[in-house]
UniProtKB/TrEMBL annotation:
The keyword Nucleotide-binding applies. PANTHER family: MITOGEN-ACTIVATED PROTEIN KINASE KINASE KINASE 20-RELATED, SERINE_THREONINE-PROTEIN KINASE YBDM-RELATED. Keywords: ATP-binding, Kinase, Membrane, Nucleotide-binding, Serine/threonine-protein kinase, Transferase, Transmembrane, Transmembrane helix. It comes from Cryobacterium shii. It catalyses: L-threonyl-[protein] + ATP = O-phospho-L-threonyl-[protein] + ADP + H(+); L-seryl-[protein] + ATP = O-phospho-L-seryl-[protein] + ADP + H(+). SUPFAM superfamilies: Protein kinase-like (PK-like) (SSF56112). PROSITE patterns: PASTA, PROTEIN_KINASE_DOM, PROTEIN_KINASE_ST. This is non-specific serine/threonine protein kinase. The gene is pknB.
């Protein structure tokens, strides 16, 4: 277990309610602690955003989104979120505390799971996910790190930080959200996610549970993304022959590249899994449906989760834990059920397809034996028959010289061509013609396509476009949207792009060359102008700024001839630079007009005294006869007396006598 004694959060009281006890996990965005809710006297998991992210509105919004998404769900297979708030500059979430491990821990310890264990975990995950889909929520970040296996046997989905409401298809400015190993083809190519994208991620997880490996690997994220977009996930039984073919078909259905060919949501896949379970489990166990047990974590087994977004620092050993259940079915364009189908009829289709695959395998094996027998010892087969052919090797990322040498060793000739590639470095082989694995006769020529690096593109001007239009302009050229920032700007309408920059160097993006496929472009969006609250009451000013997500604090008071006593003279941000939602404004309020010293007009004629007083803004109380032409009056006294400070606009009473 990692040493947490130096963690300044240990022992701290958050928001006057949550007493931090110990640290249990730390990730790139937040740290998770065990805390005591002093109000309800219960243990909770307290997720606190890292301090250096406190000013990043994108991360703050993700915290709030996680709380709102989870709050809409009440399901035994979804982690409960109890509270969300901010203490000083710390944003936090309060969640259900579940002692135990993650599915990633389980896979690290055991390598792969049995078919029965896989179906049990899949059933639980699909049950929780079906509730989310029914509530109109797409998770968008399903992976083993977000499946929690509690010590008491419960299985729950957590981390709804990337979740979004479903509107048929949910588009995102950040095309590659979530973990690259589980991204659906439509997220990779179009940045579009809906319930079927969650199904794809769950299909990849099922493959990983059954085989202990992910179907796609690569040295760079873009290589893995390319495989998601262009390759077909292999059947798990090609890695582990004992895996039932019904589960092969389930994985193929869930991971179809075309979303229309997958289950339309988790409920459809769950219903199919429950039907398959009745067929697969008796065949696999030979003794009906027995509970699947996840055995205790061994003392010598690794507890780290180095590849996870959140690393487990001290997971408790898992006693014999009953793994509960939940999950789905398969698909291709011709024989698999459609996204709307479910039920026993589909199970018959899947089972029948699996049996046909097995019969076809037997037939091919018999044919190979027959050909071998007819070969008469194999001379013809290896001299001029099929045995004289060799498969084209995989030469991706090799230098042209090394690739040429490998081909020569196989008796093949090499030719060269060039192509652009966003995944292979310039100067290395990016693809071959014929493709790797193709069998060709010795002496044939293989064309080595050498990478010239990413395809150059010309981006249009993005300033002034809507976020959707800017995203389309970037992704249509096979670049991607990186981060987005939202700031207030009086000169740019709300929702429009203020500026754009390269993610790599922060330079401004303007039309022209120097841009390449796969490049990330960061956007700054306008929130419109900060409301003008001058002349409003403090309550009205606070409400107007609050509607824009801005906070207020009391400032000083100043005299004002134009703003009434107690109303706001001005509102200014407390820090320099761009203004974002969540920033604080200082309100300066009015003390009314500045006081004026009453001048000494005693002994002056009424006309002269009247002008002096009215020029200073005073109102006068006197005998109206004094204004009669020919009436000569001398000022005898004033109330207030000369030298007194009186508010501008106040009334001065005068006494006078005939001159």
């Amino acid at each position: 277990m990692s040493d947490t004694s130096a963690d300044p959060m240990i022992g701290r009281l958050i928001d006057g309610r949550y007493q931090v006890r110990s640290r249990i996990a730390r990730g790139g965005m937040a740290t998770v602690y065990v805390a005591t809710d002093l109000r309800l006297e219960r243990r909770v998991a307290l997720k606190i955003m890292h301090g250096h992210l406190a000013d990043d509105n994108t991360f703050k919004a993700r915290f709030v989104q996680e709380a709102r998404s989870a709050a809409r769900l009440a399901h035994p297979n979804v982690v409960n979120v109890y509270d969300q708030g901010q203490d000083a500059d710390m944003a936090y979430l309060v969640m259900e505390y579940l002692p135990g491990i993650t599915l990633r821990d389980l896979l690290k310890d055991y390598g792969r799971l049995t078919s029965e264990q896989t179906m049990d975990i899949l059933e639980a995950v699909l049950s929780g996910l079906a509730a989310a889909h029914k509530a109109g929520i797409v998770h968008r970040d399903l992976k083993p790190e977000n499946v929690l296996l509690a010590d008491d046997g419960r299985i729950k989905i957590g981390d709804f930080g990337l979740a979004r409401a479903v509107n048929n298809n949910t588009a995102t400015g950040q095309a590659l959200l979530g973990t690259i190993a589980y991204l659906s083809p439509e997220l990779v190519t179009r940045g579009i996610a809906d319930a079927r994208s969650d199904i794809y991620a769950l299909g990849i997880m099922t493959y990983e549970m059954l085989t202990g490996e992910q179907p796609y690997v690569g040295e760079a994220p873009m290589q893995i993304a390319y495989q998601h977009a262009n390759d077909t996930v292999p059947m798990p039984s090609t890695r582990i022959p004992t895996i039932p073919h019904e589960l092969d078909e389930l994985v193929l259905w869930a991971t179809a590249r075309d979303p229309e060919q997958r289950p339309r949501d988790a409920r459809v896949m769950l219903d199919q899994l429950l039907d398959l379970d009745k067929l697969v489990r008796p065949a696999a166990t030979g003794s009906g449906q027995a509970e699947t047990m996840v055995m205790p974590r061994g003392a010598g087994m690794a507890a780290g989760v180095a590849d996870a977004d959140t690393q487990i620092l001290g997971a408790a050993p898992l006693a014999a834990t009953t793994v509960l259940a939940a999950a789905g079915a398969p698909h291709n364009a011709s024989a698999f059920p459609s996204a709307g189908d479910s039920g026993p009829a589909n199970t018959v289709v899947l089972t029948d397809k699996a049996r046909k695959r097995k019969r076809k395998g037997y037939w091919l094996f018999t044919l190979v034996l027959l050909l071998a027998a007819l070969a008469g010892g194999g001379g013809w087969y290896f001299g001029s028959g099929p045995g004289s052919q060799v498969p084209v090797p995989s030469l991706t990322s090799a230098s042209p010289e090394d690739a040429t040498s490998q081909l020569a060793e196989l008796g093949l000739e090499a030719a060269r061509d060039v192509e652009y590639s966003g995944t292979i470095a310039a100067g290395l082989v990016s693809s071959t013609d014929p493709e790797p694995g193709t069998r060709i006769a010795k002496g044939s020529t293989v064309t080595l396509r050498v990478s010239q690096g990413p395809q150059p593109i010309t981006l249009p001007a993005l300033a002034g476009l809507t976020q959707e239009a800017a995203t389309a302009a970037v992704t249509d050229l096979k670049a991607a949207i990186g981060s987005t920032d939202s700031v207030f700007d009086a000169d740019v309408d709300a929702g429009l792009v203020i500026s754009a920059s390269r993610e790599s160097d922060g330079g401004d993006v303007s039309p022209g060359g120097g841009y390449f496929e796969g490049m990330n472009v960061n956007l700054v969006l306008s929130l419109g102008a900060v409301p003008d609250v001058s002349g409003k009451s403090v309550d009205d000013a606070t409400a107007a700024l609050g509607d824009k997500g801005l906070l207020v604090t009391a400032g000083g008071e100043e005299f004002s001839d134009s703003v009434a006593d107690g109303d706001v003279i001005s509102a200014r941000p407390t820090k320099d630079g761009p203004v974002r939602a969540g920033d604080t404004f200082t309100l300066t309020t009015s003390k009314g007009p500045a006081p004026v010293e009453v001048p000494n007009v005693v002994g002056k004629s009424w006309g002269e005294g009247k002008k002096i007083l009215t020029d200073l803004g005073f109102k006068l109380k006197y005998n109206a006869l004094w204004d009669t032409p020919g009436f000569a009056i001398v000022v005898q006294s004033t109330d207030p007396a000369a030298g007194t400070l009186a508010p501008k606009g106040s009334t001065i009473s005068l006494a006078g006598s005939l001159a």
